[in-house]
Every structure is written in C-alpha cells, then in structure tokens.
C-alpha cells in the first residue's frame, strides 16, 4: 500500500491540537514553529499532486515573504510555475487539519481516490526556502514527508520564491517547444541578464540603482544577477542585505514597509536625482521611489509599474489607486478588469488576454503572453529591417519577463529597460498621473473568518450590516472609497481607504477601522482615533 509508512513518519511531526490551518492567499502562513506538521503534510500532498500530473515536477517553497521573521509559510507550485490549482487548496487544508496520524493516511487515500491518482507513478518535487530562522526545521519536516512517499526530491537551497517558480517551469518544459531555460540559479541569471542586455545595449547607460533587499534572500541573489550581467548597464548598490542577524528581515525596510508607510526604508538616505527600489523578504514584490528637489518622498508602486508596462489589457485589484484605474481607462484607453487579491486570481484573468499585464498595488505582478500572442510573434514575417528589429525586441522582452509569477528581479530589469529606452527618470515616469492619497490599516479581530466579501472583495456580505456602515461613512468624503477584507496571509482584517485629500483619506480609514473594531469583535488596541 502506498501510504502505509505515513502514520509512522507523521508521528514525528504532531499537529498542535488547538490550531486550524487554512491554505490562504499564498499558501499556509503562521508562526514558524507552529508549521512543522503542516509542512510535513504539504510534502505528502506534493507527491500526490506530482502523480496526478503524470510525474511532472511540483515545487514546494518555504517562505512567509513580506511577513515578520517569526512567521513562516509553505506553498505548492504547479508544473508551469504557476500557483497551485485552486481546487486542490481544500485538500491542503483538510490534510493540514487531520487530527491523528491515521487520519493523515486516510485523507491521502481519499484524495488519491477522488482524483483517480495512479500512485505507482514516481513523484518528483523541487523545493527551496528563504532565509528565515525556522527554515531549516521546516525543511527537515518537508524532507520527511517526501521520504515517506519515496519522492524523487531536489533541494534548490536558499533562493527567491520566483526563482523556484522559474526552475519548476524549466524542469517541466525541458526538451519541448516551450522550453523555458536552464533549471538552475545560473540559468536564471543568464536568461534574464542576457535578455536585458539585448534590449538596452547601445542606449544611454543608467545611473546607479539603489536596491533595498529587506535583509532577505533578494540580497545575495541580486548580487549574483549583477555578477552575471557584469555590465555598466546594470550598476547597483544593495542596501539592507544582512541575512545573518536575527530580527532584521522586513523590519523597517522592504517593499511592504515602503508601500504601507509611504516612506523610504531605514538604512537608505534618499538623494534627489537618485534611483531607488525595494524588494520584499522573498523578492517577489518590488516598488520604486525617489526624492524630489525639496526632499519629498515619491512612491512608484505596482499600479505605476502596470501603467508603465501596459500596452494591452491589464488586471488590477481593489487596492489599485483610483487614479491609476482612470489613467489606464481614460488616457491609455485600455481595458482593465478587477480580480480578488492574490496573484493566483490576477494571473488567471491575465491569461485570457493576448498580452496581459497584472500588478497588485503592493508591487507583485508580471506580464503574460498567451499562446495566440506567441503564435502571432512566431509567424510574423518582417517586411523591413525596422519590423525585424521590433520582432526581435519583442522576443527579448518575452525572455526578460518571468511569466510564471511576479518577480522582483525580473520586474526590476523590465522597468529599467523601459526607462532606459524612453530615457526617463523616475520623476518622468511619475508624471503620468497623481495618486489619490491612500491608507491601508490592519484591525485585529476575534474571528476574521466572519468577514465574507463579494465584488472582487470590495463589498462585505458578512458581518451583517457592516457594509452599510462603511457605505455611510464613505459617502461623507469627496472621491472617497474604502473596503474591508480579511487577510489571507496574516491574522488580521485589512481596511483600505482613499479620498481627495490626505486629511480626508486618513479620517476615512480610521473611521472605517474603528467601526470594524467596534462592530466585529476588535481585539487589542482600537485603531487610533484620527484627530
Ligand atoms: C501575498 C500574495 C499577494 C497578496 C499579499 C497580501 O504576497 O502573493 O498576492 O497581495 O500576500 O495578501 P493578503 O492581503 O490576503 O494578506 P506575498 O508577497 O506575501 O507572497
């Protein structure tokens, strides 16, 4: 029987009785030391997922990305490097919550039956982790899960999340017409670095790009990318690169900090005319920023990246600043659609477009070329040297983009390419439109599962009556917009607000957050009253 060894292995990684796990926005996320049983079980499920895909390689990434260092997480990556098919998320949650070691075996049997899995197929898994202190413990648990089901497993070490997505896609497409590249770190750097140079060489060289690496895995990885590119066209200085000292990851730095606080990270002094960007802890998000002559901070977030890149349709979430949506529709005259938060939702919408651009405001996104666009490019016959050059540049552009998932390093090279080709400074790019003032707050409540939403998460359907309260508050503010949704990566409810002025925006955000706290079981400190 394929699963007979499972209970014995499972006994080494007992599930804490009082915790219920849920596969959320980007897999399981919680305090690292509470995740051992879950990561072990994800290893088991990765094996079944691989068998259900006729032995293609499935990825397992251990990371909690932008979250605090004490947190950790784990997610599965499907064969083309995309997020796990959503119908399997329920299996993940069920397995993670199985009460006993025997139940773990029963759930596996149930999944194998439901999905008609041939368990004699050799399962293959590629795994990696970020720099978090709980990483080695969780990696050990994962390896036990893989061993229990005799999986052919490869450890890719400490790499960025998008690098593992890339590697999984490379492994499963090797030797086919869709071959994506060499499934190694070196192959990743060579692919993206050479595409970048093909696009920018011969143009004017950019000035230094200052990178805040959030004291995470992006620091060593972007340095390796720079060594591989080895050109004055990629001249970087890496800040917040301490991955050794405990307590530094994502603290007062990184893309999430910069976006949420709308200020530069600690450890970086902004000089007017300088060029800056921040990665998050696992290097799947990026935001840019600069200081103007008066020293004022200006943020170029995922919305701004989308408008820089968009030549075709785009996908946004409710967090997209209202000004960016108006700019895409009214000035670029491009269609834009809304999806729920989480790149897994945006990715699927973008797949429906010929060239689909999707970015979350937090800096997580990419560009997808669907098969019809690739066929058109393949069949295009140039009738002039200029057309031949344009086609060649489009191929290089496609090679520059990590289509499997949002990727800070690939996105950074994409933005640099566009800025170099247009000869734009960050301030030039920023001119396109002015963001409405916005604010994102967190409210801790007793039970965030009571928060249910519809309309791409912009409208609450539960708790009963709360949406009416939000609507009545919003109505008082010119250009006001606010929504409330439960986070899928943290134990909190998020409140987003934007309005015509900074004062109105903050008042709106804190009033809505206060109403959530009062009417839906707020815990701890009430969101500070805005005066
Ligand atoms: C993850 C997801 C993103 C999402 C973010 C916040 O980011 O990949 O798509 O926007 O969480 O999600 P939530 O508001 O549900 O907590 P990351 O960078 O942490 O992987």
TrEMBL record:
Alpha-D-phosphohexomutase alpha/beta/alpha domain ranges (all copies): 57-89, 120-175
SUPFAM superfamilies: Phosphoglucomutase, C-terminal domain, Phosphoglucomutase, first 3 domains
PANTHER family for the chain: PHOSPHOACETYLGLUCOSAMINE MUTASE
Record keywords, A-Z: Isomerase, Magnesium, Metal-binding, Phosphoprotein
Domain of life: Eukaryota
Family membership noted in the UniProt record: Belongs to the phosphohexose mutase family.
Name under which the protein is recorded: Phosphoacetylglucosamine mutase
One Pfam entry name: PGM_PMM_IV
GO terms classed as biological process: carbohydrate metabolic process; UDP-N-acetylglucosamine biosynthetic process
Catalytic residues (UniProt): 65 (phosphoserine intermediate)
Catalyzed reactions: N-acetyl-alpha-D-glucosamine 1-phosphate = N-acetyl-D-glucosamine 6-phosphate
């Amino acid at each position: 029987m394929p699963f007979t060894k499972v209970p014995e292995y499972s006994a080494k990684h007992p599930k804490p009785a009082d915790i219920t796990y849920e596969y959320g926005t980007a897999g399981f996320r919680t305090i690292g030391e509470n995740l051992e049983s879950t990561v072990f079980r994800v290893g088991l499920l990765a094996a079944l997922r691989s068998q259900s895909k006729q032995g293609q390689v499935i990825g397992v990434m251990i990371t909690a990305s932008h979250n605090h260092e004490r947190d950790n997480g784990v997610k599965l990556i499907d064969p083309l490097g995309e997020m796990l098919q959503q119908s399997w998320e329920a299996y993940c949650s069920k397995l993670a919550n199985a009460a006993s070691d025997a139940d773990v075996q029963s759930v596996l049997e149930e999944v194998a039956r439901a999905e008609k899995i041939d368990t004699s197929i050799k399962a293959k898994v590629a795994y990696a982790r970020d720099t978090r202190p709980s990483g080695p413990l969780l990696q050990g648990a994962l390896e036990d899960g893989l061993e229990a089901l005799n999986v052919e497993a490869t450890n890719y070490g400490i790499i960025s999340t998008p690098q593992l997505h890339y590697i999984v896609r490379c492994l499963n497409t090797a030797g086919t017409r869709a071959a994506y590249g060499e499934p190694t770190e070196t192959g990743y750097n060579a692919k993206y670095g050479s595409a970048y140079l093909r696009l920018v060489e011969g143009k004017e060289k950019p000035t230094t790009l200052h990178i805040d690496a959030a004291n995470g895995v992006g620091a060593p990885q972007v340095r390796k990318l720079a060594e591989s590119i080895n050109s004055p066209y990629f001249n970087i200085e890496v800040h917040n690169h301490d991955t050794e000292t405990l307590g530094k990851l994502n603290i007062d730095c990184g893309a999430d900090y910069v976006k949420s606080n709308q200020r530069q990270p600690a450890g970086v002094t902004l000089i007017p005319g300088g060029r800056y960007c921040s990665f998050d802890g696992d290097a799947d998000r990026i935001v840019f920023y600069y200081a103007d002559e008066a020293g004022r901070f200006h943020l170029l977030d995922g919305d701004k990246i989308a408008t820089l890149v968009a030549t075709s349709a785009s996908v946004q979430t409710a967090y997209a600043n209202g000004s960016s949506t108006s700019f895409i529709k009214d000035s670029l005259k491009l269609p834009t659609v809304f999806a729920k938060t989480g790149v897994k939702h945006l990715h699927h919408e973008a797949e429906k477009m010929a060239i689909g651009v999707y970015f979350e405001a937090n800096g997580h996104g990419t560009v997808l070329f669907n098969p019809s666009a690739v066929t058109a490019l393949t069949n295009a016959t140039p009738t002039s040297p200029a057309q031949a050059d344009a086609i060649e540049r489009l191929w290089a552009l496609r090679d520059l983009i990590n289509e499997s998932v949002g990727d800070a390093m690939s996105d950074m090279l994409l933005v640099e390419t566009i800025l170099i080709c247009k000869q734009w400074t960050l301030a030039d790019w920023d001119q396109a439109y002015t963001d409405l003032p916005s604010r994102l707050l967190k409210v801790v409540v007793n039970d965030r599962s009571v928060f249910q939403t519809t309309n791409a998460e912009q409208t609450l359907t539960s708790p009963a009556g709360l949406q009416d309260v939000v609507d009545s508050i919003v109505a008082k503010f010119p250009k006001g917009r606010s929504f409330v949704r439960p986070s899928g990566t943290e134990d909190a409810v998020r409140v987003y607000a934007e309005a015509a002025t900074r004062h109105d925006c903050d008042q709106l955000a804190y009033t809505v957050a206060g109403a959530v706290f009062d009417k839906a079981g707020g815990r701890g400190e009430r969101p500070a009253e805005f005066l």
